[in-house]
Structure formats: structure tokens, C-alpha cells
Design goal:
The protein is α+β, with helices and mostly antiparallel strands and 114 residues long. It contains six helices and three strands.
Length: 114
């Protein structure tokens, strides 16, 4: 069902399973780019090598892009794979939400009439 390669989607889901990696994506969602140092500073309880590993996992999963400028690495969110997962897989669940909301509306309206 996913148009993104199954292995690409699997890698993305595996990367997203970790709270720290999801937080990295949230930080980059709210900023155009961040350096590796800025990202590491956002996680004071995690060692720099551990943050670096998280960044590598996200980059290899296709969720981040990174450019080296001099000695500095700059990371940006790459929303392409997330958009594909949303459009091709998550969106297929929307009718279930709509149906559930419809049932809730009927239930609420029927209890008001009593």
C-alpha cells in the first residue's frame, strides 16, 4: 500500500520508534536547520556520541538531510518520506476516525433528547 519503498517506510518507522529521534524531528520542524552542536545541546542528559548516532539513524532512514560546512554539520528535516507515509498509509485510517466521530455524534444527540 505504501508507495514509499517498504524498506524505506520500515526504516522510518524504526527511527520514529525512539522518543529522542522524534524530539529531534520536532526541533527541526520548528527551525529550518540546526547544527549538530545545537541539537546535542538540546539533549543535555545524552552524550554527544549518542546524539550523533540518533542523527545518523534519522539521516539513513531518509528523514533528515545533512550538509557539512567547514567543520560543522547542519541538519534539516526532509519531509518527503513522512509525507509519503502520511498520504499512502496513515490517510487510509481517516475514514475510521470519521466513522467513529459520526457514531459519537449520534450517541451524544440521542442522550440529549432523553
Amino acid at each position: 500500500m505504501l508507495s514509499a519503498t517498504s524498506s524505506g517506510a520500515d526504516a522510518a518507522f524504526a527511527a520514529l520508534a525512539d522518543l529522542t529521534r522524534r524530539r529531534v524531528l520536532e526541533l527541526l520542524r520548528d527551525r529550518d536547520e540546526m547544527t549538530a552542536g545545537e541539537l546535542a545541546a538540546a539533549f543535555p542528559d545524552i552524550s554527544r556520541p549518542a546524539v550523533s548516532k540518533h542523527l545518523r539513524v534519522l539521516r539513513e532512514a531518509g528523514l533528515l538531510t545533512a550538509d557539512q560546512i567547514g567543520r560543522e554539520w547542519r541538519y534539516r528535516l526532509d519531509p518527503t518520506l513522512l509525507a509519503s507515509i502520511h498520504d499512502d498509509w496513515l490517510a487510509t485510517f481517516i475514514p475510521l476516525f470519521d466513522e467513529s466521530l459520526g457514531r459519537l455524534k449520534i450517541r451524544v444527540e440521542s442522550t440529549r433528547r432523553r
